[in-house]
Amino acid sequence: MIYLDHAATTPLRDEARDAWLEAQRVTGNASSVHGAGQNARRVLEEARERVAATLGAEPIEVVFTSGGTESVGSALQGLWRRRAADESRIVLPDGEHHATLDTVAWLASHEGADVSPVALDAAGRIPVDAFGAAVDGAALATALVAGNETGTVNDAAGLAATAARARVPLHLDAVAALGRTRVDFAAWRGDAPAGSGLVAMSVSGHKIGAPVGTGALVVSRTAALEPLLHGGGQQRGIRAGTQDVAGAVALATAAELAEAERVEESARLEALRERLVADLARRIPAAIVLGDREHHLPGTVHVMLPGAAGESVLFLLDQRGISVSTGSACQAGVAEPSHVVMALGYTAHQAREVVRISMGTSTTAADLEALADGLVEAYDRIAAD
Amino acid sequence: MSGGVDSAVAAARAVEAGHEVVGVHLALSRAGGTLRTGSRGCCTVEDAMDARRVADKIGIPFYVWDFSERFRDDVIDDFIAEYSAGRTPNPCMRCNEKIKFQALLERALELGFDAICTGHYATLVDGDEGLELHRSSEEAKDQSYVLGVLTAEQLRHTMFPLGETPSKAIVRREAEERGFSVAKKPDSYDICFIPDGDTRGYLAEKVGAATGDIVDRSGEVVGSHEGAHAFTVGQRKGLAIGRPASDGKPRFVLEIRPVSNEVVVGPKEALAVAEISGTRYSWAGAAPREDAFRCEVQIRAHADPVPAHAVLADGALVITPDAPLDGVATGQTAVVYVGTRVLGQCTIDRTVSAVPVDPQPVSA
């Protein structure tokens, strides 16, 4: 089986699994006062320190969550509900993940939020000046550090600086970025005024080889964020609930490994990506690789195959044991072409002719050769008419 | 695999017969409800999940394929256009014709499949001149009518494993034996893209509702309506006519005139149709050898077939039932049978009344 959908999820790292199993032997609620509780707490806080280090954050700023969707939803709803009294605008760039889109849409229809969209440029990047113009006087803003579909990497530092200048709180979605491109909360936050500029950042565990059900939300000390869950007051009251010690340990392990290998692995994947793109350009001239040529995640190739339904290509590849995606894995049930592709200016019909290939630690050159052969054969078969 | 019990059992039987089977759920609607509400409509996320679980149980791969764009163009837009033109469409026929056995079949053949298998109650028979489509076993809910629009080429790539099963109860029992959670799931009826069943409201929204006159056959205004699309030929209820007819008999909708936004009413006898014809016709298999032949014609899925004489003339299939038919609307499909065999069908363009036109009232 050739798995090329690492952006959807990636295999659990052995080290993370072992660390998780080992941590399961620690019995004790990290909030309990007695020795067993203290021990659990110690293990948890060590994990928190390790995660904080990989994200460029202080340990007190790291809130463990159940994953990317919870982090994003908590951040957006939380910042919204503690917003400055006279503001009601949320700055929302096109092409954000559904966890962001759907949350903002819900706030718009239920809590009176107004949405200020920011169009992407032709390569799918958020233009910093357009973002800056929108951010003026807004209640809050949100942006992807890197897109999960096109793999385009935005100028996070620039976006954060813009928000800081405008004194608007910013949330960054680093779910697809972690482990693939540099993520540094402190650097991006800089010396923004209290409660504004970069104040929150979401990451997900299963995208970097930690278990599904792990993740974190970095929340700046001075951020004003209304919690979603109330209960035991854990994690600064931001995220109540008995803390998942083993999950935190697994996340820390995976995060450290991902960061340690990032530069080298990125170079390796980028080389594989370039070879694949060149191969496709030669063998399927009509194919269009979407996204930014310069600023992209290594290992993600988002390609439009005119005249070939993505679903058909996916099926034929699946039959050959090659797993790819036609878009975000998260659009469940309802028929929907990729809104990200449409944000680049394509039609709904074209947005259905896209295939996303995302590589991971296990990906080899041979995998990509097989993929290219499969794509060529599928394309010839389908787009012939 | 719609998530219903028929397609579930059909899939299981196909696997058992030794075929290499892949289950596909068609995503046709953009509206996408999550949970089923009653028996109306189809294809919510829950339906897709039901289909998936059946596929899991029988051990076949499962995909959800998006044909919503073509469905909108070929089925929904056609539905609205037909009603706007004063006709009564049958969207299920269009769906079979354009989506299930065309768009889906095209993709299937493209991807290397040999056939589409469905849970329809109909049978395929190898006849002297090729494949024939026949009604299903007597007691079952025969669905050959909605398949009347299939061509010989399409039939060659079709399988109906349920055709020989004498009753639906047997299919449900089989589903239960196989451990399918959908064994007790109620059948969906009504139009799948109008999940709340309110066709009238749907049309009011899409076609627009404009107040107009209700007139009798002489043109005299006898009442008013709030949207011509809400009426269909043969309808009796819902006519807001102030005073009774001069002969005291109930009035029925005879015709809908979209251009003048009039609904024409008259006595039941005026509903009688002596002849129906259509220029868009097809044969479910080999075309008939003669240009004129005896047959049975069925004008609705649940109508009884009636004996008739059919003639191919000037590019139209003209069908003359032995006894006049009541309440035939243009836009409906007439399926022509010879015995249990579906010969073909036509979309009814034209109806000829069985009664002479009333003489004009003499002016005082």
- Count the helices of chain B. How many? 7
Going by helix content, strand content and strand pairing, the class of chain A is alpha/beta
The parts of chain A where pLDDT drops under 50 for at least 5 residues are none
- Which two chains have the most extensive interface, and how many residues on each? A-B, 18 and 20 residues
Number of strands of chain A: 12
Task: Give the neighbour order of strands across the main sheet of chain A.
Answer: 2-8-7-6-5-3-4
**Oligomeric form:** heterodimer
In total, the number of strands of chain B is: 18
Binned, the helix content of chain B reads 10-25%
Largest β sheet strand count, sense and barrel closure of chain A: 7 strands, mixed
State which percent range the strand residues of chain A make up: 5-15%
Q: What is the overall shape of chain A?
A: globular
**End-to-end distance of chain B, in Å?**
66 Å
Percent helix among the residues of chain A? 40-55%
Q: What name does the CATH topology of the largest domain in chain B carry?
A: Rossmann fold
CATH class of the largest domain in chain B: Alpha Beta
Describe the overall structure.
The complex is a heterodimer of chains A (385) and B (364). With 385 residues, chain A is α/β, with parallel strands linked by helices. Chain A folds into 2 domains: 2-8 and 262-383, Aspartate Aminotransferase, domain 1 (Alpha-Beta Complex), CATH 3.90.1150; 14-255, Aspartate Aminotransferase, domain 2, CATH 3.40.640. Helix content of chain A is 41%, strand content 14%. Chain A contains 12 helices and 12 strands. Chain A has helices at residues 14-23, 35-55, 68-81, 98-110, 128-135, 156-165, 185-189, 245-283, 310-319, 339-343, 348-351, 365-383, and strands at 2-3, 62-65, 89-93, 114-118, 140-144, 169-173, 197-204, 215-219, 288-290, 300-304, 322-323, 354-358. In chain A, the strands form 3 sheets. Chain A has a 7-stranded mixed beta sheet with strand order 2-8-7-6-5-3-4, sandwiched between helices. Chain A has a 3-stranded antiparallel beta sheet with strand order 9-10-12. In chain A, strands 1-11 form a two-stranded parallel sheet. In chain A, helix 2 packs parallel to helix 8. Chain A is globular. The mean pLDDT of chain A is 95. Chain B is α+β, with helices and mostly antiparallel strands and 364 residues long. Chain B folds into 3 domains: 5-119 and 161-184, HUPs (Rossmann fold); 209-267, Adenine nucleotide alpha hydrolases-like domains (SH3 type barrels, Roll), CATH 2.30.30; 271-353, Translation factors (Elongation Factor Tu (Ef-tu), domain 3, Beta Barrel), CATH 2.40.30.10. Helices cover 24% and strands 26% of the residues of chain B. In chain B, strands 4, 5, 11, 12, 13, 14, 15, 16, 17 and 18 form a 10-stranded antiparallel beta sheet that branches. In chain B, strands 8-7-10-9 form a 4-stranded mixed beta sheet, with no helix packed on it. A two-stranded parallel sheet of chain B has the order 1-2. In chain B, a hairpin with a 7-residue loop joins strand 13 (292-298) and strand 14 (306-313). In chain B, helix 3 packs antiparallel against helix 4 (91-110). Chain B is globular. The mean pLDDT of chain B is 89. Chains A and B meet through helix 9 of A and strand 2 of B.
